[in-house]
Amino acid sequence: MVEVLTGTDRSAGISYNELLDMDSRSVPDLLKQDAPLPPGSTKVSVHKYISKEYHDLEVERLWKRVWQLACHEDDIPNVGDTHVYDIAELSYLIIRTAKDQVKAFPNSCLHRGRALLDTSKQGLRALRCPFHGWSWNLDGSLKEVPCQWDFPDVNEEDYALPDVQTGHWGGFIFINPDPNAEPLEAFLGDIDDHFQSLPFERRYKAVHVAKRLPCNWKVAQEAFMESYHVVATHPTLLRSLGDANSKYDVFGNLSRAISAKDVPSPHIHSDETGEPFEDATVYSRHKHALTGHVYERLEEGRVKVTHPNGKTGIFDDRANYIEGEVKSADPQICNWFGGKVVQGMEADTPLPIGAVPIEEARRISADTAREGMRAVLGDEVDNVSDAELLDTLYYSVFPNISPWGCFNPIFYRFRPDGNNPEQSIHEVMFMLPVPKGAERPAPAEVHWLELDDDYTLAPQLGMLAKVFNQDQFNLAAVQKGLHSQPKKEVIFANYQETKIRHFHQTLDQWLEDGAAD
Known about the structure:
This protein has helices at residues 16-21, 29-32, 47-50, 52-63, 184-188, 217-222, 230-233, 270-273, 331-338, 358-377, 386-390, 464-482, 498-513; strands spanning 42-45, 68-72, 82-87, 90-98, 101-106, 126-128, 135-137, 142-144, 165-169, 172-176, 203-213, 247-251, 254-259, 285-287, 294-299, 302-306, 312-315, 321-324, 392-397, 401-403, 410-416, 424-433, 447-449, 489-492. With 517 residues, it is of the alpha+beta class.
């Protein structure tokens, strides 16, 4: 059973710092560092997720003033390459104006306001408005106004495109529309200390998937900021992820979570639920780690559920009852086993809990990961700790990106989708290391998924497509439920939802307290 009250301030089981003491290599001090957010009640009004007025406030006081990731330098490798970056109702152009220079401008003609570009372009020599032909040089200086004699007030000085601040970190290009904003380096603080294992400058964008979601951008982002939801949303991970004993820290505009791999969840009591099937793959058959119920994929859209007493039931991939004595089932596991499976996504059979001690299990997995990284990193991988190779270490950089740490390639960005406060964009990038001595590969094109699309339509996501489908299963329901929330507010846990609490505290400073002015 999942614990209700333990009498302590943490779940049972081994702590993350105790795991680090077992590591077969020296562990970076930064992983051991504890920087928790002070405990306290954090309650957030539901209007922040559903209100158009609050969305407009975010546009004015956040998106027009904060440092935000616009694109990767590889997206505009050559002079004249231009990237269109949209955020809410705003649009900007990021242009490579010289080999070592990037500039940014509002994506708007100074004549009638028409967007200068509708999509990203390569090799432009000038920016020319498709409406009346006004044009600007790549550096923003006014180039041509048809019939300029008819505009006596238009001159080169007043009608140059206004510069938008740019900054660079890790191969990414950031912009800030506020001309008085602090430098990006000051905003990011000591961020480089957290990405020393494999700096992003040594990586390239191997995958880029963007998915529209039917929820506020904060609802989407918050779903990826904690491991507290694993017990209900990702129950198939419970045997190999120390979810409830994750470690959470904050550092300026950064927050961090670390969830241990190859460690069973403290929610599991294996003597009650038994071990997983030795011959089962992650998509064929599964024994629920908490209830002992067996879920078996019959075909796409059909899952058989067997209770320990032998009674069975058949359900679809949304846990809707079809037939049998068993009338209810876990919707997330039905989604996992009954949903779409893309060829090539199969995985090895799970290691039974307790088959080997935790220390040995982690060493075995880490050694396998080392060999997999050797072709890319060479012998330097021999000194890398087990924790750096195995554990899920995911950062949030205010306001809306989540680069994963150490050797994990995942990188998220969350954005409002236009002016609709109840729709957003979830972007997933895989930032892989460039092999030593190899040429830098071209960046992946964006693969767009619409609101009703399944994540498995982007097979380059691998098993993560199935995990994201489980997350997506909740998001529309969260947005719907917020409108009927009787308390008119949501509440976040002191520790396990540290990153969300830190995000809202920082957001409030920008939107309400005026501390960012």
